[in-house]
Amino acid sequence: MTSPLDLDALRTAIENIDEEILDALRRRMDLADDVARSKLATAAPFRDQRREDLLLRRIRTRAAEHGLDPHEVERFWRLVIDMSVARQQALVTRLDTTPLRVGYPGVEGSYSHLAARLRYSGRAGGVLLTGFDHTRELVEALRRGEMDLALLPIENTTAGSMNETYDLLAEGGVVITAELVSQVDHRLLGLPGAKLEGLREVISHPQALAQCEAFLREKLPWARAVPDADTGGAAQKVRERNDVTVAAIASETAAQRFGLEVLARGLQPEFDYTRFVEVGREPTPLAPGVPCKTSLLMVLEHKPGTLGEMLQRLTLRGVNLSKLESRPIPGSPWQYRFYVDVEGHAASAPLTAALEDIRPLTSFLRVLGTYGRAEGSHG
Amino acid sequence: MAEPSSQQRRVAFQGEHGAYGEEALRALYGPEVEAVPYPTFRAVFEAVAEGRADAGVLPVESSLGGPVTENVDLLLEHDLEVSSELSLRIHHCLVAPPGLALEDVERVLSHPQALAQCAGYLRRLGIQPVAEANTAIAARKVAEEAPPRTAAIASRVSAELYGLTVLEEGVEDSPDNHTRFITVGAAPPRAWRRRKTALAFTVQNEPGALYRVLGAFSGRGLEVSRLESRPQRRAWEYVWCLDVDGALEDPRVREAVEAAQAACITLRVLGSYGVA
């Protein structure tokens, strides 16, 4: 039995511990402010579900090691994370300049995130980057005004045009405001201590596995290639599985992000490039004389002569085509969608006239945006 | 081992026995040739280029999924000529080890493009798609490893080959599911419906450059049935791929190609061949 005096002493001890907890919590919140500033400056994503999952997993493990109930402790930490995020968001509203809210598909360390960081880090006023699991969710957040811009991959030297991005652009409500070309540079990533000769499995996006096929065949014939949803997610899996026989093909940034070692570089025979489009709700004004291009999406009847007729009408107006790809339309066997880039501004006299000329040949024609041509983009 | 007939042709395809590529191969070259599976499309090209196979069969376009860009690029990379073309109707089947009922299937393995072609069906049944390298590998994996509550989407031939039950046939969302295959190397010995000529070319980046090439064909009453740009492995330039109806032996086609050549930086005839 505990005496009343002992109880007072115990209560004092508990109060002291509570003070320690509060002090630690305040210091943790102060750090959250610093983290927010650093994220704004370096264009790192603001709320990252996967990072939170990793943190909670670590907390559960540590809680169990301390002899505490992992689930009760997790509930407590979820509250701490919410407080921390609320504090970071409050800091953003206090800033003099509003940071730009930019969304990208994938996790931190994905190639879309790298492209976003390249484009926006160092921007005055800061950037709030947010990764989205699904491109559709990202575009819907943009339409609702929860994001200012979205950065979407539209075309890759290996995979060609990305149908999903074109689908979302075709639905309207958003326009292409810029393009950028970014180099894909794969690394083989493993846990610290992992050796090439000990690998049994290599995880990555199917496209990345295809790009590195020669490397895998020559250097890792004994390892199995396992497809995954994205490269960043593959790197995360290697970390989570904590198995030295598993490696991922992903970016250098993903290595840093998930604490992995670079086991090999130069995995592709040649460098691979991805073209991204920046998408917003309003077109960006372009200075006169800036070389620009206009992206179009159209549906043509698949019958002899239509394609040739369309090209002829564009040429008669002096409009040059720089890209043309066709895609079948599932469920409409006799129609094709065409992804077309032409030189010039959609509002210019020749292009306006040309679009009116070709409209009767199409069952759908939409201007996806006019934007400045990227450096290194000759298309 | 029986002595292989010196006359017997070896034809390469990608995947494993039971793949749709093998079905296309049989449709073109018949039952007599030896069908040799290779793990990748690149390996098929290399086997033909190095003379280990007489011909190779490769998918280049799906009526649902669009172009198989890897093979378009491999064709541009190698010196092999296209020797024929075939459009194959694809019937996907949901296949599983004997004993697994349709309502117990939770996951399904297949090639990403096959999964995409059956996306609506899988969504309706609440089945989770899992990517594999190809349909035949998916079928073999389901047969040999029997992962719990797991089926595959593959061809009927694969199901028969690996002793699997066909739970449902024709699970693709669109009835118009065709894949266009081409062959490289020796041409299949058969009659053709029509002939066409495929070209790859690059043009100067200036107004009308592309149209001058196209004009060479339309001015001679020739029908351009396909025109596609492919980004090259240099940021960011395109190579154009064009199909025109007619054989290169046809004087009109030959003249048009020569006229087009004058308007291009580079031009290569990928092949002039029969369409099955």
Helix-strand layout with pairing:
The complex is a heterodimer of chains A (379) and B (276).
Chain A: H1 4-42, H2 49-65, H3 70-94, E1 100-105, H4 111-120, E2 127-132, H5 135-143, E3 149-156, E4 160-161, H6 163-170, E5 175-184, E6 187-190, E7 201-204, H7 206-211, H8 213-219, E8 224-227, H9 231-241, E9 246-250, H10 252-258, E10 261-264, E11 272-280, E12 292-301, H11 306-316, E13 321-329, E14 332-343, H12 349-358, E15 362-372
Helix pairs in contact in A: 1-3, 2-3, 11-12
Chain B: E1 10-14, H1 20-29, E2 34-38, H2 41-49, E3 55-62, E4 66-67, H3 69-77, E5 82-89, E6 93-96, E7 107-110, H4 112-117, H5 119-125, E8 128-131, H6 135-145, E9 150-154, H7 156-161, E10 165-169, E11 178-185, E12 194-202, H8 209-218, E13 224-231, E14 238-245, H9 251-262, E15 266-275
Parallel strand pairs in B: 1-2, 1-3, 5-15, 7-8, 7-9
Antiparallel strand pairs in B: 3-4, 3-11, 5-11, 6-9, 6-10, 12-14, 12-15, 13-14
Helix pairs in contact in B: 8-9
Question: Describe it for me?
Answer:
The complex is a heterodimer of chains A (379) and B (276). Chain A is of the alpha/beta class and 379 residues long. Chain A has four domains: 4-94, Up-down Bundle (Chorismate Mutase Domain, subunit A); 100-184, D-Maltodextrin-Binding Protein, domain 2 (3-Layer(aba) Sandwich); 187-268, Periplasmic binding protein-like II (D-Maltodextrin-Binding Protein, domain 2); 288-372, 2-Layer Sandwich (Alpha-Beta Plaits), CATH 3.30.70. Helices cover 42% and strands 27% of the residues of chain A. Chain A has helices spanning 4-42, 49-65, 70-94, 111-120, 135-143, 163-170, 206-211, 213-219, 231-241, 252-258, 306-316, 349-358, and strands at 100-105, 127-132, 149-156, 160-161, 175-184, 187-190, 201-204, 224-227, 246-250, 261-264, 272-280, 292-301, 321-329, 332-343, 362-372. In chain A, strands 1, 2, 3, 4, 5 and 11 form a six-stranded mixed beta sheet that branches. In chain A, strands 8-7-9-6-10 form a five-stranded mixed beta sheet. In chain A, helix 4 links the parallel strand 1 (100-105) and strand 2 (127-132). The termini of chain A are far apart. The relative contact order of chain A is 0.11. By secondary structure, chain B is of the alpha/beta class. Chain B folds into three domains: 10-89 and 177-185, Periplasmic binding protein-like II (D-Maltodextrin-Binding Protein, domain 2), CATH 3.40.190; 93-169, Periplasmic binding protein-like II (D-Maltodextrin-Binding Protein, domain 2, 3-Layer(aba) Sandwich), CATH 3.40.190.10; 194-275, 2-Layer Sandwich (Alpha-Beta Plaits). Helix content of chain B is 29%, strand content 34%. In chain B, the strands form two sheets. In chain B, strands 1, 2, 3, 4, 5, 11, 12, 13, 14 and 15 form a ten-stranded mixed beta sheet that branches. A five-stranded mixed beta sheet of chain B has the order 8-7-9-6-10, with helices on both faces. In chain B, strand 13 (224-231) and strand 14 form a beta hairpin. Classes of the chains: A alpha/beta (379), B alpha/beta (276). Chains A and B meet through helix 8, strand 11, helix 11 and strand 13 of A and strand 4, helix 3, helix 8 and strand 13 of B.
